Amino acid sequence: MILGLALEFYSIQQTLSSGGAVSAAIKARCKIEIDRIEKQFEDCIAFLLRVLSSKLNVDTFLIWQI
């Protein structure tokens, strides 16, 4: 999922940095897409942190049980 977001972001970046003139409508749409990608990325990172935190808590609990 994170790789897909990175590819989407790269594609939008290429659109904005293309040599030709980019219309205001395209720039606005790209901004909306960038905001969406940032939100999804933040959600992915939050999920991964919850998983890692849970794993650390379980491992710590198991160590103390030994």
From TrEMBL:
<protein>
    <submittedName>
        <fullName>Uncharacterized protein</fullName>
    </submittedName>
</protein>
